[in-house]
């Protein structure tokens, strides 16, 4: 006999949404240039008993507007009823479609962001209520710390933020090194040495798609010469290469790569290339939602899906994805965008819960210098982050920093990420091309 559920979880009393802007250096990618500030949104969700859960997602005025609407829907709801909440949000906003993602390297869908923000904040609250870390709400820990990779970028000189393209003379160590320009092999190698020295990373990724393939591949070869075969290397030109370019340089880099990320655009092209080269292919661009799994399996478009809980609809959805990946012989790792410690903590709880984790996760964290959690920036130990020990996410909001970074948001005037516009401030004729080389 099915028992009627009699318990009633705490109700959600309030949702607070705070857009913030964080300093971001002038990093280059296939879509253009990072603005001096990256936008994030911090969500605080408060229960009727005054317990507060937090989350962080990429900032965008349209997402914030959707979050405002969603919060009107969730107030008064039972904190534990996440499945129902998701259905209600789907009914209200309509399901995201594959094309809503957009052509940029990052994801622009609405519902996945909104639900992920609310889900992570609810899980943080639940963890605090039952005095368990979020990793335990995801089924428990498979590891105590989660490895990350050094994430290198071609970049112009500059610190970002109010410094823009100039350097903060007070900076030391990695904080100074991250302000140096890197537009050639030596610049990239110097960046890698400084980042690995500071964080102890055990694998390296280079974001490409900014320059001619020949130059970018020369940078990968320079990294290989500098760090040797024991250092796993990855390269990601964000799908800007034609299939023949993917084949040519995919072959050249075969002996030196751990994996090649989104060399070409679309599942068909990825599947074709995958049949031609031995290097595993990874993606955060061609298989980006559950709706795309059937065609991914039919075509065989990648070996590794780079999930992102902000884009796949939360931490539990990412756990579900890991099971799907396991069934169909895919590996799962994680994608990132410029972020702070709340997102990092969520990634670490998820990374610790994943049954299999063969590849170190991406993170932009070294490129940021600010924080919104108490106690300052999270520490890396040999490239890995220990699962925070407190209940919930195990990190607390620093309200003074939140206010400072919110003031940055108001001052900087940015409302959404647009790397093409930023690039045109430097090169007025530059335009984004989905496939360039
Ligand atoms: O931060 O410029 C960037 C990256 O290009 C980012 O937007 C991508 O979404 O890191 C991402 C990726 O792996 O494609
Ligand atoms: Mg990528």
From TrEMBL:
Pathway: Carbohydrate acid metabolism; D-glucarate degradation; 2,5-dioxopentanoate from D-glucarate: step 1/2. SMART domains: MR_MLE (SM00922). InterPro entries: DgoD-like, Enolase-like_C_sf, Enolase-like_N, Enolase_C-like, Mandelate_racemase_C, Mandelate_racemase_N_dom. GO terms for molecular function: glucarate dehydratase activity; racemase and epimerase activity. It catalyses: D-glucarate = 5-dehydro-4-deoxy-D-glucarate + H2O. Pfam families: MR_MLE_C (PF13378), MR_MLE_N (PF02746). Residues 185-280 form the Mandelate racemase/muconate lactonizing enzyme C-terminal domain. Its EC number is 4.2.1.40. This is glucarate dehydratase. It comes from Cyclobacterium xiamenense.
